[in-house]
Design a protein that fits this description.
By secondary structure, this protein is an alpha/beta fold. It is built from 14 helices and 13 strands. It has helices spanning 3-11, 23-27, 37-44, 65-73, 86-96, 108-120, 136-144, 161-167, 190-197, 256-262, 270-281, 283-305, 331-340, 365-382; strands at 52-53, 103-106, 126-129, 147-150, 172-178, 202-206, 229-234, 247-250, 310-312, 319-324, 343-344, 346-348, 357-361.
Length: 384
């Protein structure tokens, strides 16, 4: 392009576009994931190697050696994945004791959630949700143009089954629950789940953290008995595969063909599939790491409970939620101290409309120790 033409192009007026996005997209708030290592390092100047990432409920151990070996030994990354993902579905089937025709894979459970919501929800439909919980449920509901009917939890963050029943309308298609719940860490009692299944609505149970709970097999066995129960799972948390994006759903058989029609080909990438199969094949090693996290969770809980300005909630996930219970301690002060130590946490200002909260992912023992040092500085700084 000549210099003269280049000048003329630059001087041309940009024509405005009058095409608008959908109204619900314009109104919605984007989902905000936990800050990454790289973004935190750029924002604070803390070197990557000094950062302790306790804000996204990731495993501090990463993939087991067998998973890494499977990825490194594969030579055909130039080829698309198996469209049926047969080997991975068989591995998930052995793990969950459900048939392969009840399993839908996805790039993390988030993709399964997105697909499932779009399969059933449109303008005029509604779902019942029990905040505080995983915010992606609301984000995708808004994306579908559907309505969210929030039913508040009790003072101990248990679900209120009677209130959920009272919130149901003819437009309600879903009841969505997370067990153990993120960010509160408490599981759904079986009696409550069975009562909600009797409503006839689709009950979607997100078991992203179930492997850390007192019932690590979850409620998968109930899927064979109830045509309205869907369970969502992921290998991001317990298996240390968050960066490879492997999730799945356990479905009544009648829903699976519709999911397959709506889903894009190649549900899971090759590397993620190989790592997931290796993890499910060498299960005892992965479960041993889960047990270490559960034991460290106990230590972390006692550490939090020992702070006069914090009230932690018992958790069956790989994280603990704690309420700031002293007005002299502000969440901004806590964040400032934590970041000076290179520690990333998740912060929830006014989570219950009155108090600020922090959520701490369970890390390695040395992570807990540095976190303890930071908590001591918070206490010293505000003199509580």
């Amino acid at each position: 392009m000549s210099q003269e033409m280049d000048v003329r192009v630059q001087q041309q007026r940009t024509l405005p576009c009058s095409i608008a996005v959908r109204a619900e997209i314009a109104r919605m708030t984007a989902y905000a994931p936990g800050e990454s290592l790289q973004a935190f390092s750029i924002r604070t100047g803390v070197p990557l190697k000094r950062i302790i990432k306790l804000n996204a409920n990731e495993s501090p151990y990463g993939p087991i050696p067998a998973a890494l070996h499977a990825i490194r030994s594969h030579d055909w990354y130039n080829q698309y994945p198996d469209t049926r993902a047969s080997l991975l579905k068989e591995a998930v089937s052995r793990y969950t004791c459900l048939d392969t025709d009840q399993i839908v894979l996805g790039h993390g459970s988030m993709e399964v959630i997105n697909l499932l919501w779009h399969l059933f929800l449109s303008s005029g439909d509604a779902l019942v949700c029990c905040p505080p919980t995983f915010s992606l449920y609301a984000t995708i509901t808004n994306l579908c143009g559907a309505q969210i009917r929030n039913v508040e939890r009790t003072g101990n963050y248990e679900i209120d089954v009677k209130a959920i029943g009272a919130a149901l309308t003819p437009e309600t298609k879903f009841i969505v629950l997370c067990s153990p719940n993120n960010p509160t860490g408490n599981p759904i009692p079986e009696s409550a789940l069975l009562e909600l299944l009797e409503t006839g609505r689709l009950v979607i149970l997100d078991e992203a953290y179930v492997e850390f709970s007192s019932r690590p097999t979850g409620y998968a066995a109930l899927v064979a008995r109830y045509d309205n129960l869907i369970i969502l799972r992921t290998l991001s948390k317990w298996a240390g595969l968050a960066g490879l994006r492997v999730g799945y759903g356990l479905f009544p058989r009648w829903i699976v063909p519709y999911m397959q029609r709506a889903q894009q080909p190649f549900e899971v990438n090759v590397a993620g599939s190989l790592a997931a199969i290796a993890t499910l094949t060498h299960l005892s090693e992965a479960q041993e790491r889960v047990q270490r996290i559960v034991e460290e969770r106990e230590r972390l809980f006692h550490l939090l409970a020992g702070q006069p300005y914090l009230h932690p909630f018992p958790s069956e996930g790989n994280f603990i939620l704690a309420r700031l219970g002293d007005t002299r301690v502000r969440i901004e002060q806590v964040q400032h101290v934590m970041e000076s130590y290179g520690i990333l946490l998740r912060y929830f200002p006014r989570l219950d409309r009155m108090h600020d909260y922090i959520r701490v992912t369970v890390g390695l023992p040395e992570h807990t120790q540095r976190f303890a040092d930071a908590l001591a500085l918070v206490r010293e700084t505000v003199q509580v």
